[in-house]
Amino acid sequence: HDGYKVGADMLVSLEFRTSRSEGVFLGISSAKVDAVGLEMVDGQVVFNVNNGAGRVSVRSIGQMLCDGQWHHLLARKTKHALTLSIDGSKYNTLNPYPQSTSAETNNPVYLGGFPAGVKQNCLTIRSSFRGCLRNLQLAKSHLNIPLDLSSSHYLSGVTPYSCPAA
């Protein structure tokens, strides 16, 4: 989806299941440094944000999330903090750059991966997500936007509204 403005706050909510330990959930990145990235690295979820002053990250700890079971993920960016919730377990980190609170983007939202040649400033891996995603929502303040993948500009290796058996 084109032209998404992250700004001072945003929330990503989704459910996923996978047996792979690495994969991109979501990436939004400006041509400069402002960006948001949500990924699975070594079986843990990592949420990265750069409001222009430097990258801030929060990571899940413990249970391997590449177990083929459904997991509920909630990632929230506010002016001063990042929060990640996985199946009810919460992880927080404060923004150490109080003067920089807004990610200035007007760029595409990439789900499940991103094309070769596209730079994503807040993703540490290039591996496409392999598994199932459902109930995806992007929210800004109190405005929830369900993501309709069938209306995406470009689909590659995605079958909307289906999920193979694990």
From TrEMBL:
Entry-linked PROSITE patterns: LAM_G_DOMAIN
Q: Which domain of life is it from?
A: Eukaryota
Q: Where is the Laminin G domain?
A: 1-163
Signal peptide per UniProt: none
Pfam families linked: Laminin_G_2
Please name the PANTHER family in this protein's record.
LAMININ SUBUNIT ALPHA-1, PIKACHURIN-LIKE PROTEIN
**What protein name is recorded for this chain?**
Laminin G domain-containing protein
Organism, as annotated: Goodea atripinnis
Question: What lineage does the source organism belong to?
Answer: Eukaryota, Metazoa, Chordata, Craniata, Vertebrata
